[in-house]
Amino acid sequence: MSLINEHTTVPQLLRNVIKHVHPETDTFLIRKVKEQWEEISYKDTLAKADAISSYFLEIGIKKGDRLAFIIENSVEYVYYDQALQQIGGINTSIYPTLSEAEIEYILNDSGAKTILVGSPFLLKKIIKIANCCEELIRIIPVFEDFEKITEKTALNAGIVSLNSVIKEGNLKLPSFINEINQIRSQVLPSDISALIYTSGTTGVPKGVMLTHSNFVENVKVCLEQIPVIDQNDTFLSFLPLSHVFERTATYHVCCTKGCKIAFAQSLELLAKNMGEVRPTVMSCVPRLLEKIHDKAIKGGTAAGGTKAKIFLWALEIGQKHREIKEAGKNPSFILNAQHAIAEKLVFSKIKEKTGGRLKFMISGGAALPKNVGEFFGNLGIKILEGFGLTETSPVMAVTEYHRQVYGTVGRVIPGIEIGIQDVETKKFVSIQTHETFNPNFTCDEGEICVRGHCVMKGYWNKPEETAEVIDSEGWFHTGDVGRFFKGNLQITDRIKNMLVNAYGKNIYPTPVENTYLKSQKIEAVFLIGDKKEYVTAIVTPNRETLQETFELKDVFFDLPDLFIEDEQILAWISEDIKKFSHELAKFERIKSFKIKRNPFTIEDGEMTPTMKPKRKVIEKKYVLEIEEMYMGAVEAD
C-alpha cells in the first residue's frame, strides 16, 4: 500500500509512517555520541519538532517565511526541518563550505528570518555578516557555549541555543499545539518546501523553488523503480543534506518508508562508521566508489604472487557470473561453484569493510565510470545510478534494481517526459517516458530536456532566469548532453563544458577524463582545448600512490610550487597518459600536461560545493601554465 497520494506533503510523511508502519517508540535516527551510537525514536523526533515549531510561532514566524540552515548532517537538521515544514516554513539550506560573501547573499536574497548554525567555526562566519542581513531575527547555534564567540559583537538578531529554543518551545507548546496541527493540515502540495541555491560554475547563485509536491512525487516514483527498499533498511548518511540528492535519496526516502537514518561522523570516519552501523543502503558519489575501487585493486594485487593471482581470478569469475545473470541465463554448476569460492576468498572480505549488509548503493552527482560500476557488479555489490539536477527535485532517471546497463543512469521515472533535443536545430531527436521504455532503443545525442512533476516552480525572485530554462511548452532545458542507450538515459557532458578545437571537432571532457581516471596513478583530470589545436590537461596525482612509489614525505605536498616539475614523476604519469590515450580518438588525446601538486578546492574558489570544477576560474587562474603547455611543455603522446 502506498502511503502517498496527490495531497501528501513533506510534514505528513513521518506521521504516515507512525500511523501505518512503525510504532512511535521505534528508532528513526541514529547518531554517535562519544563512543556509543544513540538511537532516537519517532516520538522523540516529533516532540523536538513540535517544541521548535512552538518557538517559531511565539517569535512571529509565519507560513511562507524562509528559515536557514548552515550545518553538517545531524539529528538537529531533522528536528529543525520537521519543525519548519509543519508550519509552512521554507527550508533554506546553505552549504557550510561557502564564503561569507556567498552566505550573506543567500540570507539577503531569501530574506531568511532564522538560521541554525552547526559549529563554532560556522558561527564565526555568521557573526561577521549577520548585521548585514536585515531580515534575520534569530541565530540558533546547536551548541551551548557560544557566548565566547559573540561577547564582543553587538548583534541585531537575537542569539539562542537550540536546546533553549526547545525548552522555551515546550513551555509554550500547550498554547500552540492546536495551531501547529491546523497549519500542518493547511500546507498544500503546491506550496514551496525548500529553497536550494545552485552553486553554479559561473554567475550568481539562484534559489531553486521546490514544492512539497516536487519532493513527494519524486520519492514516490523512485521507490516504485527501486521496490526493494523497506522499513527494515538502515541508511548511512554522509552526503550533505544541503544538497537535494541526499535530501531526497536518503532523508525523504526514509521519512516515507520508515527506514532508519544513521549519521556518519565525518568523511574521514566514514569507513569506520560503515563497519559500526552496517548499513543496508547508502547514497554516494562516484569519487567515493572510485577510491574504494582503487584501494581494493591495490590491496588485492600489491603483494603479487599467489594472493594477486587469486584476486584477479576472483574478479574474472565475478565478471563471467554477472554477465550470464544479466543476460537472463543461469550460470553453470561449475561457474556457481567457482563463484562461491571467489565469494569466500575475496568478495566477502571487501564487503565486510562496508559492514557486510549492503543491498545496494545509489550513486549520483556525476557520471560513474563504466569500469567502476562493473567492478562492483563483479563483487556482487549493486550500484544503482540516478540522474537529475537541483531544478528537477532531483531525480529524472534511475537504474531499475533488476535491470542494469552500466554506463547509463537508468530508466525514465514515471510521470515525466525526457526529450533529447538537437543542440543546433533545436528539434527533438526523441521523447521518452517510463511507459515507452524499450531495452533495444538507442538514439542520437542532444540536450536533455524534461517536462513533468519533477520540474521546479522556478528561481526565487528571478522570473527572467526562470524563463530562460523553462520554455513556453514547459520543457526544462538541463544544459546536459546525452542520449538514450538500450532504453536507458546516458549522460555525455554539460553543453557549456564542450570544447571545440581549432579544427571544429567537438570534445566532451567528462568521458575523456574518465578514460584517464582508470589509471591508479591519477586522482583527477581537468581537460583544456577549446579553440586549440590539441588537448592538454592539468592532472592531479593520486597522493597515496605517489607517496608510496617515490617515498615522499607529507612536506612534499606543502611546497610552495603549485605544480610538480620532477622529471621522474612526469615520466611516471606520462606512462599512463600514453597507455589510456589509445582508447580515444586522436583529437581527444592529451598531448601535453601539467601535474598539480594538490587538488582543486572549494576554499580556493576552484570547485563548487558539489565538487564540480569551475572551468572559467581555473582557466583564468592557471593561464600561464596553460600557455606553457601550448608551447611544448610535457609531451604525453
TrEMBL record:
This is AMP-binding protein. GO terms for molecular function: ATP binding; long-chain fatty acid-CoA ligase activity. Keywords: ATP-binding, Nucleotide-binding. It holds the Pfam family AMP-binding_C_3. One of its GO terms (cellular component) is membrane. It comes from the Bacteria. InterPro entries: AMP-binding_CS (IPR020845), AMP-dep_synth/lig_dom (IPR000873), ANL_N_sf (IPR042099). Residues 26-460 form the AMP-dependent synthetase/ligase domain.
